[in-house]
Amino acid sequence: MPKRITWRQFLFVLPLLLLVSVFSLYPIFTSGVYSFFDYQTNDQTRNALYTEGHLNAPLFHEDGTYLNFYLKKDLSLVDETGQQTIAALQQDILEAISPYAEAKQPLALSGEGAKQVTAFVANIRQRVKDLENAYPDVELNISKSADSLLDEMDSTVVGSNFIGLEGYKRLGQDGRFFSALRNTLVFTIISVFFELLIGMGLALVMNRAVRGIGLVRTVSLIPWAIPTAVSALIWTYLYDGTSGIVARLFTQLGLIASPELLLTSASGTMAAAIIADVWKTTPYMALLLLAGLQVIDHGLYESASVDGAGPVRTFIRITLPLLKPSLLVALLFRTLDAFRVYDLIAVLTKGTPETLSIYAYKVMVGQGNYGYGAVIVLAMFVCVGLIALLYVKVLGAELINE
Amino acid sequence: MKKLIALLLVAVLALGSMAALAAEPTVIKFAAQGDSTPATQAVIDAYNASQSAYKVEWVDMTNDSGAMREQLITTLKAGSSDYDVLSLDVVWAGEFAAAGYIQPLDMLMDEAGLKAEDYNAGSMASGAYSGKQYVMPFFPDLGMLFFRSDVVSAEDAAKLVSGDYTWADLQAMAEKYMGQGDTKDGFAFQSALYEGLVCNANEFTANWKDLKGGLEAMKAMIDSKATADNIMTYTEGETHNSFIKGESVFARNWPYMWGMIKSEGTIKPNQVGIAPLPGGSTVGGWLLAINKNSKNTEGAFDFIKYLNSEPGQIVMSQAYLPGYNAMLTNEEVVKNNELLSMEGFQNALKTTIARPVSAEYSKVSDALQQAIHAYLSGTGTVDDAVKAIETALAQ
C-alpha cells in the first residue's frame, strides 16, 4: 500500500505534475482531437478544426474583388444599358464583400448566413449569365473566369469537418498501414534480437577487470556516439551499388544477386536497415547491461564456484536472474526505439522499407493530412503501450509491484 | 536657446534617418534551390544593380525537391512571412494556390501591363487555378536526350534528331556504343524512387498511353548492360555527373545540363547532340509566386517582373530557356542558348507532354512512384503496376 502524502508534500510535486501534463498529456490529447476531424492543412475548406459552419472570409472577399476587376474591364465593351447593369452588379458585389475587407481568418457562419451567401452567389451567377446573353457578340472578360470564381465563392461556405470515428474506420481498411506495421515489427524484432545477443556478449567482456578494458569500453561505444543521420550516410556509402564495399562483399558471398539490390529491393533495404541499426545501437544495449552486471555481488560468484558450478550454470542461475531489472529496461528502451525508427531509414534509403513513423510523416507533412496522420500516430501509441505491457508482464511483474 | 538646440537635434536625426532609409533598400527574400549554374545569382545581382528600392536576398533551399516542398509548406502553413518570392516546381502550384499559400497575380500584372499569353503557356497554365493566375515563369524546362555526337554515327544521329526511333532502338544503340570514346555506360536516366521517376515513366509510356509496353521498355533498359548497376539510385545529379564527365553515351536530362557541359564538362559542347525522346518530353521547370503573407508584395512582384523582362531574360538565358515568349527569337538569348538553334531541340519542343494534373498531385505522384518502383525493382509484376497506375491516374 503506497503511503499517503500530505498537502504540503503534494505542493512540492505539483510543478512536476504540471510539466508532465503540458509536455506529455497535452500533445496526446491534441492528437486525439485531430483524429476526430478531417483536418488537412493544404485544403482551405478543412485547414482547421471546425465544429460549426464557417465562411472563408478572406477568400470570399478576394473572389468578389476579382469579379469586379473583370467587370470593370468590360464597362468599355458594352453600351449604356450594359454599363448600368454592370455598375449595379459591381455595387451589389462590393456591398456583399466589403464587411470582410479586413478579415484575416474564417468567420463562424450560422445556417441562415450560409444560405444567404449561397443565394448571393447564385444570384450573381444568373446576372452574369444574363449579361453574357445580352451581348453574345462581345468577348467579355468576365466570361473567362466567372464560373471558376463563383465556384470558389461557393466553396468558401464550409460545414463542420468533424468526422468522429471515420478516420479509425479508414485505418482498419488501410493496406498501407498494415504493411508498414509488418515492416516495423520485422525490423524491431530482428534488430533487437541481434542487439541483445551481441550486446550481452559485449557486456560480459567489458565486465572483466583486465588491463586495457577502459579502452575497449570507449572504443565499443563509438558507433553509438555518432549521430544516426551521419552513421546512416556512412552506411549508404558502404551499401552503394557501384563502390560500396559491403555491397560488393555480400555479392561475393552470394547473399545478394547483385550489389545494387541492397538499396533498391524490398528485402535488401530491410536487411541494410537492420544491419546499420544493430551496428549502431548494440553498444547502447551493452552499456545498459554492463551497468546491471556491475551491481551483482561478487561474493555470489565466489560461492557458486566453491559449490562447483560451471560458467554456464553460473550465468543461468546467478547472472541472468539478477540482471532481470536491467534487462527489462534495456529491452524496453531498445524495442520502443526500434519501433519508432525514422531517421536511419529516411537517410539510408529515403523511406524504404516504409515503417509506421515514415508513413505517418508522409501522410502528415507530405500530404498535409493531419487528421488521418494523427490516427496513425495514435495507433502507434497503442502499439507502443502494448509492447511495454507485454515486457512488464513477461519479465518484470514483481518489479513493478515492489 | 534650448529650443533651438532641440529643433536642430530633431532636424539632424530626421535627416540621418532619411539618409539611412535611402541607403537601406527593402530586403526581398527569394526562396530557391541551389543553382549549379551561375544564372540565378547573376539575375539577382543584375536586379539589385538595376534599382535601389529593393534588395533581393537568395535563401538557399535544399536541392531535394520533395524536401523543399515540405519545408515550404511547413513554413507557409504557419503563416510565416520569412520568404517573399517563392520558386515552385510546376507541379506544386495548384496545391499551393488551393491551400491559399500564394497570392493571385492578375491585378498586379494588369497594373504593370503584362499579359499572361506573352509567357510560356505550359508554365502559366500550371499556375492558373480557379480563374486566377498565381505564378509567372522562373524558367520552363523539358526532358530531352543528350547524346555524344563524336561517338554516335552520323546516320544514327540523324535518326535520333528526327525523333523517329523507339526506346528499344535507343537501348540497342546504347549497348552498341557503350565503351567507345572512353565511355563506361550506354544510357543514364532517372529511376530512383522520387518525382524524377514519374517524369521518366511519363516519357517511357508516351504520357501514360502505353503503360505496359513503356514499363517493360523501362525495365529492359534498367536490366540491360547499357545502364549502370545502380541506375535505380540515379537522380539528375548522378545523371549529369556521368554524362558531363564523358562516362555515358546517352543521357536523359533537363536543359540545365547543357549549361554544365559548357561551364564544367570534361566533354565539350561540340561533342554533344540533342534529340527529342521517343515518348515525348515531360514539361518541368520552375515558377515564381508570392507568399500570401509577404509584407513586401510590391517588391516581390517587381523582382518577378524584372526576371521576366528582356534584360532579366538575357541574364537567365546563360543557362535557362526563356519563359517570356518574345525572347525565344531574341538574338542575344539565342546566342546564349545554342539549344534554341538546334534542330533536335526544336523537335523536342514540339513533343512536350505534361504530368498528371491534380489538386492532390503529391498523392497521385506518390502512388505512381510506388507502383513503378515495385515493378522495376522486381517485387511486383507489370500487370500489378499497370493496374495501380490506372487507379492513381483516375483519382
The biggest beta sheet of chain A, please? 3 strands, antiparallel
Question: In the residues of chain A, how many domains can be counted?
Answer: 2
The helix fraction of chain B, in percent, is 40-55%
Residues in helices of chain A, as a percent range = over 70%
The fourth-level CATH homologous superfamily of the largest domain in chain B is: Periplasmic binding protein-like II
Order of helices and strands of chain A: HEHHEHHEHHHHHHHHHHHHH
Order of strands across the main sheet of chain A:
2-1-3
Q: Tell me the CATH architecture of the largest domain in chain A.
A: Orthogonal Bundle
Summed up, the helix count of chain B is: 18
Q: What is the assembly state of the chains in this entry?
A: heterodimer
Average pLDDT, all residues of chain A: 90
Please name the fourth-level CATH homologous superfamily of the largest domain in chain A: MetI-like
Structure report:
The complex is a heterodimer of chains A (402) and B (395). Helices cover 73% and strands 1% of the residues of chain A. Chain A has 402 residues and is an all-alpha fold. Chain A folds into 2 domains: 54-158; 174-368, MetI-like fold (Orthogonal Bundle). A 3-stranded antiparallel β-sheet of chain A has the order 2-1-3. In chain B, the strands form 3 sheets. In chain B, strands 1, 2, 3, 6, 11 and 12 form a 6-stranded mixed β-sheet that branches. Chain B is built from 18 helices and 12 strands. The longest helix of chain B has 22 residues, at 2-23. In chain B, strand 1 (26-33), helix 2 and strand 2 form a beta-alpha-beta unit. In chain B, helix 2 (39-50) packs antiparallel against helix 14 (310-316). Chain A binds chain B through residues 41-44, 47, 58-59, 62, 65-66, 69, 144-149, 151-152, 240-242, 258-260, 263-266, 350-352, 362, 365-368, and chain B through 66, 70, 73-74, 77, 95, 98-101, 104, 106-107, 110, 130-132, 192-194, 228-233, 360, 362-363, 366, 377-379.
